[in-house]
Design brief:
mainly alpha, disordered N terminus
């Protein structure tokens, strides 16, 4: 791999640390949820089990992404190839799995954790590269033929009838916000009408029937 001239590419810690924190936060939230569900069946203290799982997943996600980003920057390649990303993900997975395994589960889990997460890193990056290359090819064919491009794989999965979620386009999201705004405005109008009715009743005073019944009570 060729190296650029000195100064054309400098390592930036912000480009490594901040994305690592974001990935770690998402991983920690997933671990917190999975740990909470698992803790209901496997632990007498599901809250502590979920917290420990969330911390462990945060450490794994942030360490993996920081190591991967640092490796890609240390290689100082101008155009990172898909194969470079596979190697970087494999190395980062091994380091994250081994280091976090040693800290959370003891030295005996360094080698198993490193091997397992190296495989996860290699396979995960390979699958992502394959899907990304397929989507890029579809975009190129669509632009060449003048046809609309098909949705990415993850979008098709999210929009399937088996998925509890749906990915909205910008137009659909804008339409949803407008509908909610109309409902809120309608509720505000109803509240204003009720407030105005109360004000009118206060100005008019109590009805005549109430005044008469009050007088009869006082006379008796």
């Amino acid at each position: 791999m060729g190296r650029p001239e000195e100064g054309t590419r400098r390592s930036s810690p912000e480009k490594v640390i901040w994305p690592a924190i974001q990935v770690g936060t998402l991983s920690g939230a997933s671990g917190l949820f999975v740990g909470g569900v698992s803790g209901l069946f496997r632990s007498s203290a599901p809250g502590l089990f979920a917290l420990a799982s969330g911390i462990q997943w945060f450490a794994l996600g942030s360490t993996f992404w920081a190591t991967r980003g640092a490796i890609l920057q240390a290689w100082e390649v101008q155009d990172v190839t898909p194969k470079d990303r596979i190697y970087a993900s494999g190395i980062a997975g091994g380091f994250a799995g081994g280091s976090v395994g040693a800290l959370t589960r003891g030295r005996a889990n360094v080698i198993p954790g490193a091997i397992m997460f190296t495989i996860f890193g290699l396979l995960g990056q390979s699958i992502y590269n394959s899907l990304d290359a397929q989507h890029t090819k579809e975009l190129q064919l669509a632009s060449h033929d003048g046809k609309p491009a098909s949705s990415p794989f993850w979008r098709r999965v999210a929009n399937s009838k088996w998925s509890p979620m749906k990915v909205l386009t910008d137009e659909e999201y804008e339409k949803m916000l407008r509908e909610r705004l109309l409902r809120v405005n309608a509720e505000i109008v109803l509240v204003d009408e009720n407030i105005e009715k109360l004000r009118v009743e206060q100005v008019r005073g109590p009805p005549e029937d109430d005044i008469t019944s009050t007088r009869n009570t006082n006379d008796s």
